[in-house]
Amino acid sequence: MPKVLVVEDNRSLASMAKAMIEDIPGFEVVVTANGTEARSRAQEDPEGFSVALVDLNLPDAPNGEIVPVLQSLSIPVIVLTGYFGEELRTKMVDLGVVDYVLKKNISAYEYVAGLVKRVHLNRNTKVLVVDDSPSVLSMLTRYLNIQCLKVITATNGAEALQRIGEHPDIKLVLTDYNMPVMDGFELILQLRARQHKDQLAIIGLSSSGEGRLSAHFLKSGANDFISKPFSYEELLCRVNQNLDYLDQIAEIRDAANRDYLTKLYNRRHFFITGRPLFHQTVFQQKPVGVAMLDIDYFKRINDQYGHDAGDIALRHLAAMLSTEFSDSLVARFGGEEFCLLICDDPDTTRHKLDAFRERVSQSPVSQDGHHFSFQVSIGYASSVSESLDALISAADANLYQAKEQGRNRVVSDSDATESQAASASTRRR
């Protein structure tokens, strides 16, 4: 869990900062009241701190002496200050702090909490800067590195496309207009042919003397525009705003694709993702199969222990599926039914499913002091290659056979064929 170091001698302000940051899931806050204590805690575990929130005027460090100490330990610093002036601003920018925030009201701490989250996320975020000016590239790289972003550079549009090919996980592009080989407008048009605004953010850059360029950039597909020269603070706000937008869209999309109770993918996402994956796998002549899984006598769990117990059982099974089949597409289809698209050898998959079934039966669940176990039936199909829907239907038919044969078992294509042959032989007798 990432840690945030709060260095503040005012207890009420320290408590406010701690509460605001801990409202963000996944952060641990360590509070210190002076520079000496902050130095000690930081030196104990410098890599454990994602960012430090530092009061500029501490009893033993009245002029911000603790800031470069923490920076020397590679801990990004956000400064809190009770006053603001141009001299202080210049000093903070020269020091390379992430940002400086005036301790004016509660909204300042809300801003800081969001900035803490952003800095942490930036560690795994790639940004492409495209400009033919070495000095501009150097300045932008420094500014973005202060924000903990991973910076990749290019000197023209053609080179930028090459970098995108090498790093398809780039989330933000900052591009100049006037460049050799390929200008910024053509670059944006080509990027937009591949990725929409909610997948890749683009910020146009150009001198303030070219007033019409901002509209041209935006009409070409840019998310935003910054006129040169610009301040570090403006760049910080624009970059953060665009990255936050991408994250919010991704969170909304992920929520729409997941089952609320189990956090597994839902039926809709299974088909959207599964159909192209199925066709690609069949085209490559690789093995692919579908497993349909159902909790046995699920209604009895609800009737005997309550619907909360049923929900716990579903979440418990979902967690086991996510762990055991992390390389497969796993979804809750509805009720107590789950579906897996598995790209692996059929015999290997058959044995893995049976071992999983056994582990489920030996994994008890607790609810209000009651302990109960449950079992699952699984139908697995891998011999159908016409379509994903046909494969699901075959797996569902095998699941029905598993239920008919007594539950708590796996029935695959070969098992179903043997069962049908045995039934036919019995009828002939």
From TrEMBL:
Domain of life of the organism encoding this protein: Bacteria
GO MF, one annotated term: diguanylate cyclase activity
InterPro entries: CheY-like_superfamily, Diguanylate_Cyclase, GGDEF_dom, Nucleotide_cyclase, Rev_trsase/Diguanyl_cyclase, Sig_transdc_resp-reg_receiver
Domain GGDEF, residue spans: 286-415
Any one cellular-component term (Gene Ontology): plasma membrane
EC code(s) of this entry: 2.7.7.65
Broad class of enzyme this protein falls into: transferase
CDD domains: GGDEF
Reactions catalysed, as given in the entry: 2 GTP = 3',3'-c-di-GMP + 2 diphosphate
Cofactor list: Mg(2+)
GO biological process: cell adhesion involved in single-species biofilm formation; negative regulation of bacterial-type flagellum-dependent cell motility; phosphorelay signal transduction system
Region (Disordered): 404-429
Record domain Response regulatory: where: 3-118, 126-243
4-aspartylphosphate carried by residues: 55, 176
Pfam families noted in UniProt: GGDEF, Response_reg
Protein's recorded name: diguanylate cyclase
